[in-house]
Amino acid sequence: MIIVKTAEEIELMRESALIVSKTLGMLAKEVKPGVSTLQLDTLAETFIRDHGGVPGFLGLYDFPNSLCMSPNAQVVHGIPNDKPLVDGDIISIDCGVLKNDFYGDHAYTFEVGEVAIETKKMLDVTKESLYVGIREFKKGNRVGDVGYAIQKFTEDHGYGVVRELVGHGLGRKMHEDPEMPNYGKRGRGKTFIEGMVVAIEPMTNLGTRRIKQLKDGWTILTADGKPSAHFEHNIALVDGKPELLSTFQYVYEALGIESNEEDEFRKKKLQL
Ligand code: MG
Ligand code: MG
After folding, report:
1. Ligand that comes closest to the CA of residue 96
2. 76 Cα to the center of ligand 2, angstroms
3. CA dihedral 236, 242, 243, 249 (to 10 degrees)
4. In terms of C-beta density within 10 A (0-12 exposed, 13-18 middle, 19 or more buried), how is residue 215 classed?
5. CA–CA separation, 153 and 129 (whole Å)
6. Residue-wise pLDDT tens digits, 206-236
7. pLDDT grade, residue 246 (50/70/90)?
């Protein structure tokens, strides 16, 4: 059952999402060769609590940490550890925050030092595919329209679209209806309705779409050992159109990147 949100609830969700956005922005400055994912996890937990939130993943389904940290061939759900990142790594950081009873949940894949050109290209395409999907999250469209658009865009670039893990509705629970796959058929699945809030989150592999899971019961990685990227935003359906609740602008500010990629999904200009 899809739980629609009131305008007031959507503003609370924006607050939770923006704590995640700020956390990712803080981490953007700290991601570099020599730092461990566990150090980053500790920084994030402190930052989230200092901003009046609670880490949304910590203890959720018994996950042991605040961040899912998935380097290189890890797709999602990697567990932070004390192994230092090295030059040329990529690291997907997924972060959740609970505040005012509502969750924020979004993700960004960072470059560590100098990354291979083919990997950089995959990061760009994965992030672009997120916006291609968000564009389809509008009145009258269906779940399959978002999935189809992401899949088509990604596969046209020759990459693998992970099937086993999907986006989702978001609210008082981290995972609400509907499931939002990154593949699908036009015109299929549940119809989008005003007041829905979803997390759209393409997980894209440089090689095969096939995945496997580590014995830790969490970590998902590519079957062929090639890198994988993950970008996620939180979006509300407002006045029939997608309205971004999360932002990558804190990350871009930290990294000195200029981008207007989010402007079409925002009614009011974002005040950083
Ligand atoms: Mg997430
Ligand atoms: Mg999610």
Report:
1. 1
2. 10
3. 120
4. exposed
5. 6
6. 999 999 999 999 999 999 999 999 999 999 9
7. very high
107 DSSP β-pair partners: 94, 232
232 Cα to the center of ligand 1, angstroms:
6
Which 3 state secondary structure label does DSSP give 232? strand
Question: What are the CA-CA distances from residue 97 to residues 27, 49, 158, 198, 232 (Å)?
Answer: 15, 9, 34, 15, 14
The identity of residue 81, as a single letter, is N
179 alpha carbon – ligand 2 mean position (Å): 10
Q: How far is the CA of 112 from the centre of ligand 2 (A)?
A: 23
Query: Which pTM value belongs to this model?
Result: 0.98
- The pLDDT value recorded for residue 239 is 98
- Whether residue 137 contacts residue 237, with contact meaning beta carbons closer than 8 Å, is answered with yes
Residue 153 has pLDDT above 90, yes or no: yes
Name which of 142, 155, 255 is nearest 196 in CA terms.
Answer: 142
> Which residue in this structure is represented by tokens 């981008």?
259
Paired tokens of 250: 């804190």
Per-residue pLDDT of 192-206, as tens digits, reads 999 999 999 999 999
The CA R_g of the chain, rounded to the nearest whole Å, is: 17
pLDDT band at 125 (very low <50, low <70, confident <90, very high): very high
Nearest residue to 112 via CA among 44, 219, 35:
35
Q: Which residue matches tokens 């990697």?
A: 78
Q: Over pLDDT 70: what percentage of the chain?
A: 100
**Nearest bound ligand to the CA of residue 180:** 2
Which residue segments constitute the domains of the chain, with CATH numbers given?
A: 7-265 (3.90.230.10)
Q: How far apart are CA 26 and CA 181, in angstroms?
A: 29
